[in-house]
């Protein structure tokens, strides 16, 4: 190989080096990839909070026709069949007997849970109190009238209030509940009130008021 050919080869290598540097610069700074954008926003996707389930509960305090009508309200709202709950103790003051069916509840997951929760928070004007959040990172609240959720009023059913219970979680928490090869979740990975309050404020642009 002659000297002229060596010079041409060196120039070609220098040109390729320049092109590679330009490509790397544009990919890294000018047009960042989705992976780089995601890593800049969240350090670890396993730490992200999500809604595991939403439980809607209506406590009537007695069995009979009122309990049946309350079941219809939850069925209209969720599209699922509610489950009736029994009293654990006898309370003579309220006329409640042990094992008497006094309440109905339904468990909702997935996008449907997020949709109904959004409607419930809209009734509360996206404002909750610190006492609405538990130490384990879950939260709940109640509304006085179910028609505020957008359900049409039915004179045959009446108006019922209901409680919202939201269970939060992180990816990987299932290892503590599964049957086989059950493990433990570290304290740093468990949900707490502070993390849930911060998630609640960012997700719904909401406020936690101290009143």
UniProtKB/TrEMBL annotation:
Domain spans labelled Large ribosomal subunit protein uL5 C-terminal = 101-175
**TM spans (from-to):** none
The protein's matches in Pfam families, at most eight in alphabetical order, are given as:
Ribosomal_L5, Ribosomal_L5_C
User: Per the database record, which ranges form the Large ribosomal subunit protein uL5 N-terminal domain?
Assistant: 44-97
The GO terms describing molecular function are: structural constituent of ribosome
State the UniProt keywords alphabetically: Ribonucleoprotein, Ribosomal protein
GO biological process terms held by the UniProt record: translation
What PROSITE patterns does the annotation carry? RIBOSOMAL_L5
Cellular component GO terms, alphabetically?
ribonucleoprotein complex; ribosome
Q: Which family does it belong to?
A: Belongs to the universal ribosomal protein uL5 family.
Q: What does this protein do?
A: Component of the ribosome, a large ribonucleoprotein complex responsible for the synthesis of proteins in the cell. The small ribosomal subunit (SSU) binds messenger RNAs (mRNAs) and translates the encoded message by selecting cognate aminoacyl-transfer RNA (tRNA) molecules. The large subunit (LSU) contains the ribosomal catalytic site termed the peptidyl transferase center (PTC), which catalyzes the formation of peptide bonds, thereby polymerizing the amino acids delivered by tRNAs into a polypeptide chain.
Q: What is this protein called?
A: Ribosomal protein L5
**UniProt source species:** Suhomyces tanzawaensis NRRL Y-17324
